[in-house]
Amino acid sequence: MRALTSQDQAFEAAVSRIRTVTCRPEFELEEAPAPSRLAPFALALTADSTGEEDLASGRFVLLHDPDGVDEWEGTFRAVVFVRASLEADLIDDPLLHEVGWSWLTESLLSSECEYLQLGGTITRNAGRSFGTMSDRPTDGYLEMRASWTPTTIDGDISKYMDRHTRAWLRLLDHAAGLQPLPEDISHVMRSKTRAQR
Question: What's the short name of a Pfam family annotated to this entry (predicted)?
Answer without folding.
Answer: DUF3000
